[in-house]
């Protein structure tokens, strides 16, 4: 087992070349074929592959989408190759170190063939459609995450000052709504910010909103409306209950007891999404329990700091606690970084943002807050209060639940343009 930054040093390398003899560019799809893998192995998201082109990473993923019937795994789709050219590629297969016991991989024998398919035009994957429609308009500058994202027209209606959590001109910034570029643990990520109307997708009979294309090419989506209500945890009197799991055996080893909200989401997944499991990737979620620096409260966490400054990042820090940290999951919750990237901030109602959060008074996030010095047995999580963020919300308070999942990067779109009236629909 290894971390991704050790792949080039320790993982076995499989090299292959592709020659395009046509007089026009083509689009490639890479597959592994003739595979025989036990379900216990391919369903473990820690069995990974990384694809490189001339020693530059172009793709990464797990074996979870392996098709037992065809014995194939699609690795990457829509790699463009120029006319009359030959290109070199490198495939690495490796096991991600999860810090725990991974003996199921002992003596694993993995045989297969690399298959390359060529097409004269891009296949309609969800990622390619999103980037194709927005490629010329992707915004690469870093927004001011300390301010709410608004249009000029909306900005002109805002007051100069307010005493009732109303958004003011001082706390707003005029930005172009649409697709922005950032980085996450796997590379470049593209996220929607501001008043967007073309990020709807219908999946499993449920309407969702696309949050971003992750660095590994998977698509992060959130339900358009709440699925129900839950507590974050049953107890708010002890700090360990801030964790999405707690009583873990070691920091960053997520083998502890599940929170109430984790159990709620996983039960919902079993009922609503299990039959679509092949389309859903195990992806990174962050419950940041690193120590915060803001001194307004007695005990705060990293997400709390971000409510008071302009920071927001998709890279999850390692914790020294035996609760919370980085998770690899099929389903989870938004955290403070997801919401700030969308354009919301603390205690400033951004009524422009067209998400259904505005219909509910408290929405649970995955970001712990801490406790106030006036009540050291009152632990809270960061909450979405309609159209703004707040550090208040006891762990044992009921709140609306908007789950997040991540769709496999090779899912094909068969119809739709991303609007609410005509959402994307997958094959």
Keywords:
427 residues; mainly beta; eight-stranded mixed β-sheet; four-stranded antiparallel β-sheet; globular
Percent helix among the residues? 10-25%
**Beta-strand content bin:** 25-35%
Supply Rg: 22 Å
> What is the count of β-strands?
27
N/C terminus separation: 34 Å
Q: Structural class, from helix and strand content?
A: mainly beta
- Total helices: the number is 7
How confident overall, as mean pLDDT? 91
- Spans of at least 5 consecutive residues with low confidence: none
Specify the overall morphology. globular
Largest sheet: 8 strands, mixed
SSE arrangement:
Blueprint: H1 7-10, E1 13-20, E2 26-33, H2 39-42, E3 47-53, E4 56-62, E5 73-81, E6 85-95, E7 113-119, H3 126-134, E8 148-150, H4 152-155, E9 172-174, E10 178-184, E11 187-193, E12 200-203, E13 206-213, E14 219-223, E15 228-231, E16 245-246, E17 257-258, H5 260-272, E18 283-287, E19 299-300, H6 302-308, E20 325-329, H7 336-342, E21 363-371, E22 379-384, E23 389-390, E24 398-401, E25 404-407, E26 413-415, E27 424-426
Parallel strand pairs: 8-9, 12-27
Antiparallel strand pairs: 1-6, 2-5, 2-7, 3-4, 3-6, 10-11, 11-13, 12-13, 13-14, 14-25, 15-24, 16-17, 18-20, 19-21, 21-22, 22-23, 26-27
